[in-house]
Every structure is written in structure tokens, then in C-alpha cells.
Amino acid sequence: MAAKYAEIVSGKSNGDLEALYQLISEKIRTVDLPLGSTRFQTRDPLEILSSGYATAEDKVALFLALLPNPWPRCDFLLTSRVDLPGVELPRSSLFSQILFHVELPGRDLYLDPATEVAPFGVIRADLRGRNALVLDYPGFGSQPGVQHGLWRRIPSDLPFTSFQNVKVDAALAVDGKLSATVHYSVRGDNELILRLAFHKTPKERWMEVAQLLSITDGFRGQVSSVSASDPYATKEPFTVEYDLDQPKFVDWLKKTVRIPALLPQLGLPDPPAKPASGSATAPIDLGTPLEVETKMTLHLPPGTSASAPAGTSVARDYAAYSSQYSVNGSTLTATRHIKFILREVPAARAADYNAFLRAVQNDESQDFTLEQPNPAPKTNKP
What we know:
Shape: globular
Structural class: alpha+beta
Number of helices: 7
Radius of gyration: 26 Å
Strand order of the largest sheet: 10-11-9-8-14-18-17-16
Number of domains: 2
Order of helices and strands: HHEHEHEEEEEEEHHEEEEEEEEEEHE
């Protein structure tokens, strides 16, 4: 296998673990079988390479087989959807996924080659922060004389900064029709969700994915075209762009028209519900630290006048939000920026978070005001 490894990493700038990860993730298709379906029996590594497909267990075994010697300590982890798997009755059905773990100087890597389009070092959000069972027996990464706990907590952090940038370039026609192009560039948990959605959906049905994405972000109208970056290009942010049309977005029969900023909803978590008597209030989970930038440019029909709402700025140690709105001739511009700094807000600060949330929601509900000098006359239909 040493010769095969040299062939795999030859010509790579890293010539290391990342090149190996990309090969196993992207070039070996995952057979989607429940974990343990093969009783954790793995195929010969050369057979896996020649066939081009593998179970999740095959992939991590292939990873181990292709590692050169010497290499830092590595082992496998079984993850569970159960919050406290250590107190459950031992059974294979308790576990849902197998991960590969490598200890590097000053850094631990957790890898998921079975997902195929997960960036290097990225584990799904629902698995991070959970306890996983360490597989420690010959053939599965154990090393003689090395002792460690049966359970290990998977770190909650991602290996890079998460962000989401959304740009909306739109035009409003004299008949009230809205045409818009929406562009996303994302890195982090939402990136993996989008990569998986486009990866698992045939290209001829990508418009359905884009339509669902537009609805989720609060946009109305019909998606007419969509493009996306290669889901396998995991070294770069994932990008999606679609065109959206909405007839009769405004009614020019009215002298004054109010429209919202055409930006996705930021989706702040709701405040905690009132706990039952005697129960402690849970902290407010903000999720993985994330920075979101959104910008809208809307071009109005000639002769239309407009006024913009006032922007907002509110900052806390756990999150900061700001917005700006402007009118320049027949062009409207809106920007909103939020940065989640901490993972959670203590329960004792729920009132403060409620005030922050209301400030953001009140700003998102503001409208631009449009006026045409000579609105179209109403007609009486026979």
C-alpha cells in the first residue's frame, strides 16, 4: 500500500492527509448502508480501490491502510444520535456513523469521508459536541501501550471561520413584475447542507432545490434558472445563484406602495419557552459562530420616487447587528450584517437577548416607500 499512497499524493502540494482524504471522499462512492450492516467486516483495500465504491466502514479502513508509516496516532469513532449513549444498553443499532480521528501536533482532526462532499476536517453539526465511542482493537487504529477513555467528546468547532454572503440584484418593471438574481457564497454548516442537497439531487432537478431555498429565505416568486459550484470543490466556499420572477410584486394603481428589503430572513433563535415549575431555564443556543452579510440592489422604473427607512445598530458580547438603507436616484440599496460571536446566551440574560431579538426583528420589518407621479388609472371591467 505504500506504493499506492505515493501514487495518490504525487504532485500534490500537501502530499499528505488532505490528498488522501480527497481521494477516499470524492473518488470512492459511498454505499449508503446502515452502520454495521456488514457486521463491521471490511473489504480488502485494493478491492475497494479497484471497485470505486465502499461502505462507510470500508472507507475508514482504507484510510488507515493507506496511511504511511510512521504516522501520528489515529483511531475510529462511532457516533450516536442519543444524547447519552454511554448509559444505554450496548447494541450496534445505537450508533449511526463512523468517523476517522488523527492526532496531530497541537491539533486533532475529525474526518468524515463517507459524506463525500464534507470539507476537510468538517463534521456535521448534529455530531459535533457529542460523545462518541472510540474503537480500540487491532486493525482499527489502536497502538500497543496507548490507553485512553472509552468515550471521547467531538469538538464543537469548525476548522475555519463560518460565513454566509447573499447578494440580491433586482429590477422592478412598470407592470409591477419583479425580476431578481440571488447569489449565495457560504462556508460552514449551511455550506455542508447545500453541498449535500445539490450533490444528492440530479442536476435536472436543481431548480426544485433552489425553489425550496428561496422559500426558506422568505422570497416569493418562481425560480427560472439555477447554477451552483461543484459540490466536490470543498477547498472553496460553495456558491449558488438563481433567477427569480414574481409578477404583480407591486400594484401601481396605488399612489403609495410599501415594499420590504429583498433580503433573506436572518433566522435568530427564539427565546426559551417558560420552563415548567421547578425546572431550570435552558441557555439560548446560537449555534456555531457565524457572520452573515446580505445586500440588495433594486432598480426602479423611471420616474419612481422612493424613501428609505432608518438603519439600525445593536451590539452585545454574544452577537452584533447593523443595517443600512439608502435611495440613490432610481436605485434602492439595503444591507444587513449580523455576527454571532458566542455559541449561547446564558439563561440569566434572556431578557437582554429578547431586547436584542426585538431590535433585529423590528428592523427586518421596515419597508421602503415608493411613489409614481402618475399611477395607472383604474379601469372598470365590463
